[in-house]
Amino acid sequence: MEPDVTIPFLDLKTINLRHRDALREAFERVLEGGWYIQGGELAAFESEFAALCGTDCAIGTSNGLDALHMILRGYGIGPGDEVIVPSNTFIATWLAVSQSGATPVPVEPVESTCNLDPERLAAAVTPRTRAIVPVHLYGQTADMDPILALARRHGLKVIEDAAQAHGALYRGRPAGSLGDAAAFSFYPGKNLGALGDAGAITTNDPELTERVRKLINYGSSIKYQHDLAGYNCRLDELQAAFLRVKLRHLEEENRTRRDIASRYLAGLAGTPLVLPVVSEGCLPVWHLFVVRTEARDDLRHYLGEQGIASQIHYPVPPHRQGAYAGSVLAAKSFPISERMHRQVLSLPMGPTMTPDDVERCIRVILDWSGKR
Ligand SMILES: *Cc1c(COP(=O)(O)O)cnc(C)c1O
């Protein structure tokens, strides 16, 4: 085995350099257009992205966290309200709720999928609950039908955190169209990544659309008329133009990710690793390929020695972060989530990974498990 051959976790530079000419063209178009905020590139990207998600509207935002925050504000959710979130997620899901002034109410996941457990939801609903934010973690949609049914019974909004799920399907329907509204992130490392920060909101709700369009633009839809105390959370023309280029390749890149995932699943089937489970009716986009083992740190070290990068998503659950140190949440225990955070390891995954790279990762992992 060639020890100098390294497999990166995600080769962002190669991913973007593949589109060098088109990205340069997009840059020239914006530069020469002389219009940098809220222009034609944004409008075009919004309609192209809405088409992907099968929604009436997409609204570009500064990033995924702001997209979530603006949806919550758009629905008037704030102090005194409760919003149900997964106990295991990237902390931004919780931070958006906290920023709105509402209280995050964590609910534990299903072990096999790592996604919100619909069976545990009813017990978390109180008279103050206003919304549920399921996260489509690692690129597989949460089990939305029972979540939506419970939300309808209690009059709650369902806000998808689709930051990891661009193009994922649930019973044939795209992520972003499954709830009342959805937030996407185009952080460079996401399946659809900009060359900087960016995000979007998708929805079929015309009232929400009107409100968030104002909220992200100083509360204004007419210049110098401010109906709401708003924010500046816009997506700029340059990132919109780059995203239009990248969007054209999303489906093909997601297919490559699916191919890599099937190779991993077949090649690692006999190992003691807990492998990701694809739920019936779900077509994931494999933002991450996450295996689980109590020997996670040992495996990670072994892979590193063989030149294979890996990451942990996420090492510390949100309720154990300093950000929530002063809150009642810090004192609570979420054993399923805590165990996941201790066991998870994300293997290399991305559209520039070759079948040979995957084979090599599999061989090294088989080697590791043979030695134990
Ligand atoms: C990336 C991510 C976010 C935040 O998106 P940003 O664009 O980085 O603000 C929110 N939720 C989840 C699940 C994410 O993975």
TrEMBL record:
It comes from the Bacteria. The keyword Transferase applies. One of its GO terms (molecular function) is transaminase activity. One of its GO terms (biological process) is polysaccharide biosynthetic process. InterPro entries: DegT/StrS_aminotransferase, PyrdxlP-dep_Trfase, PyrdxlP-dep_Trfase_major, PyrdxlP-dep_Trfase_small. Keywords: Aminotransferase, Pyridoxal phosphate, Transferase. The active site is at K190 (proton acceptor). The modification N6-(pyridoxal phosphate)lysine is found at K190. Signal peptide: none annotated. Gene3D superfamilies: Aspartate Aminotransferase, domain 1, Type I PLP-dependent aspartate aminotransferase-like (Major domain). Belongs to the DegT/DnrJ/EryC1 family. This is Aminotransferase. The lineage of its organism: Bacteria, Pseudomonadati, Pseudomonadota, Betaproteobacteria, Neisseriales.
